[in-house]
């Protein structure tokens, strides 16, 4: 086995030394070693990709579509995403110059951060949030400024944003907003987004809206986008992973004004050349002929949310009013203290139920755990029974 030359060992990218592997993934890997455990740790739909979408990919392979696709995406797919945004949030994006197809929403985040952030730039990150944001931002040399939203009901208010912009976040270049939220499941009300848009404009920020869960909103709530109010500033990121149960297909997209999209497309081409042909064919089918697919998924997830919400509240957990995505962010009952890492480890080892410690999602997550209800209904029922037995025996 080759060993790296000693004179090269200290010449690697030193920025990587400031980054840590995903604690969420590490905890999930540890929990996975426990025999018989039910894992509610990862946002992985148990549903299958719709058959007509799979057939479209197979047909594309059989048609020998095996050559380089256009670097920003196939024209048919760019058009399909443009139509999707028009019908869902009533915003017009030019498929020829304002949309880019990416390798998942994670690829989209990399493209955007690399396109707009320079070393030393500040970007505001309301927390708790999907922790990968922090590492991707740091890779560019920029500085993530966490905004703890726990006292605002896990929804950043315009007043809180302005306070941060006159304090720790003074001089920030951008803000990223996840809506619906991972891990809290919160959905931003329209009036709150309008207020945030005014502050973002006043302080001349870029806004980045991660809307990967946009199709999964429950209880008569409605998803709105910053692109409805400040399309000239907003960079919208989304994809098909969650609503279409296509996590493994790795298909995302970005929509933004053409001036910044030129840079985003350049970065995307440098990183991946182009997205896989048959994956794009599947996405075209999903968007053009599968508009009812997310509705079916939404009904399943909403039924699971209602079941889990009642069960956990009956056991003394306080919930952060989940309204979308497929997560519950639950405050640990006072009986167990506020060490969410210790509680999650205990629950895994003694009850054989895996949940994710809240502090892994940034400031404001301490004392909470995240549970994913993207697992099967049968697993959720059994997990709740195990949690009840564990709680009752303390």
UniProtKB/TrEMBL annotation:
It comes from the Bacteria. Residues 37-387 form the Aminotransferase class I/classII large domain. The keyword Glycoprotein does not apply. Belongs to the class-I pyridoxal-phosphate-dependent aminotransferase family. Its cofactor is pyridoxal 5'-phosphate. GO terms for biological process: amino acid metabolic process. Coiled coil: none annotated. The keyword Disulfide bond does not apply. Its EC number is 2.6.1.-. It is an enzyme of class 2 (transferase). Keywords: Aminotransferase, Pyridoxal phosphate, Transferase. PANTHER family: AMINOTRANSFERASE, ASPARTATE AMINOTRANSFERASE. This is Aminotransferase. GO terms for molecular function: pyridoxal phosphate binding; transaminase activity. It comes from Lactobacillus hamsteri DSM 5661 = JCM 6256.
């Amino acid at each position: 086995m080759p060993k790296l030359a000693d004179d090269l060992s200290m010449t690697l990218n030193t920025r990587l030394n400031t980054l840590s592997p995903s604690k969420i993934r590490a905890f999930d890997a540890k929990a996975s070693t426990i025999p018989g455990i039910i894992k509610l740790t990862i946002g992985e739909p148990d549903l299958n990709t719709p058959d007509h979408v799979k057939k479209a990919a197979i047909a594309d392979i059989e048609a020998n579509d095996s050559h380089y696709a256009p670097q920003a995406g196939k024209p048919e797919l760019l058009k399909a995403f443009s139509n999707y945004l028009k019908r869902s949030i009533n915003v017009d994006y030019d498929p020829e110059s304002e949309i880019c197809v990416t390798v998942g929403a994670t690829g989209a985040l990399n493209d955007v951060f690399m396109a707009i952030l320079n070393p030393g730039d500040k970007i505001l990150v309301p927390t708790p949030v999907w922790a990968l944001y922090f590492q991707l931002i740091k890779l560019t040399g920029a500085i993530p400024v966490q905004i703890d939203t726990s006292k605002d009901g896990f929804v950043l208010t315009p007043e809180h944003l302005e306070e941060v912009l006159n304090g720790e976040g003074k001089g920030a270049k951008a803000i990223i907003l996840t809506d619906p939220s991972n891990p809290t499941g919160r959905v931003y009300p329209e009036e709150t987004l309008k207020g945030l848009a005014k502050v973002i404009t006043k302080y001349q920020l870029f806004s980045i809206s991660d809307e990967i869960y946009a199709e999964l909103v429950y209880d008569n709530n409605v998803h709105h986008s910053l692109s409805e109010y400040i399309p000239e500033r907003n960079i919208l990121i989304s994809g098909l992973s969650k609503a279409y149960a296509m996590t493994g297909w790795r298909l995302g997209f970005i929509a933004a004004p053409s001036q910044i999209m030129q840079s985003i497309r350049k970065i995307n081409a440098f990183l991946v050349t182009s997205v896989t042909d048959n994956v794009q064919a599947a996405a075209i089918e999903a968007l053009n002929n599968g508009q009812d697919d997310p509705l079916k998924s939404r009904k399943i997830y909403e039924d699971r949310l209602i079941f889990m919400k009642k069960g956990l509240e009956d056991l003394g957990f306080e919930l952060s009013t989940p309204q979308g995505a497929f997560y519950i962010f639950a405050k640990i009952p006072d009986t167990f203290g506020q060490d969410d890492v210790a509680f999650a480890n205990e629950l895994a080892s003694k009850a054989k139920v895996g949940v994710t410690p809240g502090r892994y999602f940034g400031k404001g997550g301490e004392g909470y755990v995240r549970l994913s209800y993207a697992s099967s209904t049968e697993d959720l029922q059994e997990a709740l029974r195990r949690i009840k037995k564990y709680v009752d025996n303390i």
